[in-house]
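Could someone model copper (II) ion with this protein?
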Amino acid sequence: MKSVLKITLFFSILLVFSSMKSIKFPDEISATIKVSGVCGMCKKRIEEAVYVTGIKSATWDSKTQLLTVSYKPKKISEIKIHELVAGVGHDTEKVKAKDETYKNLPDCCLYRDGASMHKD
Ligand SMILES: [Cu+2]
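Reply:
Sure, complex below.
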């Protein structure tokens, strides 16, 4: 009886630790990032920019201006995702694109200069 109790205790401790670990280090998490953009070309550019190792999926919506990404936190950090997006000319809520990069965007994509929203 005593050993049964010990085993039960051992496994319940193990269970608590393993669940704590999965909360602390989940394999995959998702984030919603605000990204400025205008059209279908922007969508393609933004989604392709974050198509790197560690990213499981990425979808940007021109209406909501939100990029939803699923990624492996062990492989890529959230700030890195912001940097990738800014790297192709799109401002995020945390990282601003360089003016130089921004200026190279097609005219219809110039969100900062009030490019009108249009359909894909
Ligand atoms: Cu565009």
